[in-house]
Design a protein that fits this description.
The complex is a heterodimer of chains A (113) and B (111). Chain A has 113 residues and is mostly beta strands. Chain A has strands spanning 5-7, 10-13, 19-24, 31-38, 42-50, 53-57, 64-68, 74-78, 87-94, 103-104, 108-112. In chain A, a hairpin with a 2-residue loop joins strand 5 and strand 6. Chain A is globular, with a radius of gyration of 13 Å. Chain A starts with a strand and ends with a strand. By secondary structure, chain B is mainly beta. Chain B has one domain: Immunoglobulins (Immunoglobulin-like), CATH 2.60.40. Chain B is 0% helix and 55% strand. In chain B, the strands form 2 sheets. In chain B, strands 2, 4, 5, 9, 10 and 11 form a 6-stranded mixed sheet that branches. In chain B, strand 7 and strand 8 form a beta hairpin. Chain B is globular, with a radius of gyration of 13 Å. The chains are: A mainly beta (113), B mainly beta (111). Chain A binds chain B through residues 4, 33, 35, 42-45, 47-48, 55-56, 58, 90, 92, 100-107, and chain B through 32, 34, 36, 41-46, 49, 51, 89, 91, 93, 96-104.
Chain lengths: 113, 111
């Protein structure tokens, strides 16, 4: 069974641009969550999607958004990029929102210059 | 405020010894707690979880202990191996807020 796939692995953007990251969950998993990982703040919850609906959202500005498609694939978008948005963005999939085990992808390393 | 925190940022142990990684939490409403392992260049990997109504849970070479009285969580790794070198995170699941992670402990294995 293929794991969680995140694309691209690495990305360099300039301030003010916008970026879209993609996540394909494990086949059969319908819940996808996104996290931001930085050395200073650690792993922080961005949002969770299930059945194409955003269920929960973390404490991030409106520049961070996401969506989920009918095949459970998810995208997250960051608009008007700031230097502080440089981070590893991780996607986690689980069979359903109540599942205790979440499987993470390798992440997308975003660098904003 | 509510948080999940770790006592030590780095833990160095001899190969073959047991490792104990600690974690403190402040929110008593969490449904369950999870330990993740993150190796360099990879995403976090699920190790073991424990529900809030349990005190102990064992896996393969790992044991998680939960002390709700002092709000303390620990991960014990038996017979530590070089492949155990990684950053270990404790996390709590409160349902609507997703997973709340601690800062992480870097486990270093000495030969």
């Amino acid at each position: 069974k293929a794991g969680v796939t995140q694309t691209p692995r690495y990305l360099i953007k300039t301030r003010g641009q916008q970026v879209t990251l993609s996540c394909s969950p494990i086949s059969g998993h319908r819940s996808v969550s996104w996290y931001q990982q930085t050395p200073g703040q650690g792993l922080q919850f961005l949002f969770e999607y299930f059945s194409e609906t955003q269920r929960n959202k973390g404490n991030f500005p409106g520049r961070f958004s996401g969506r989920q498609f009918s095949n459970s694939r998810s995208e997250m978008n960051v608009s008007t990029l700031e230097l502080g948005d440089s981070a590893l963005y991780l996607c986690a999939s689980s069979s359903n929102p109540g599942a205790t085990e979440a499987f993470f992808g390798q992440g997308t390393r975003l660098t904003v210059v | 405020g509510e948080s999940v925190g770790l006592h030590l940022p780095t833990l160095s142990v001899q190969e073959g010894d047991n490792s104990i990684i600690n974690c403190a939490y402040s929110n008593s409403a969490s449904d369950y707690f999870i330990w993740y392992k993150q190796e360099s260049g990879k995403g976090p990997q699920f190790i073991i979880d424990i529900r809030s109504n349990m005190d102990k849970r064992q896996g393969q070479r790992v044991t998680v202990l939960l002390n709700k009285t002092v709000k303390h969580l620990s991960l014990q790794i038996a017979a530590t191996q070089p492949g155990d070198s990684a950053v270990y995170f404790c996390a709590e699941n409160r349902g609507a807020d997703g997973l709340t992670f601690g800062k992480g402990t870097h486990l270093i294995i000495q030969p």
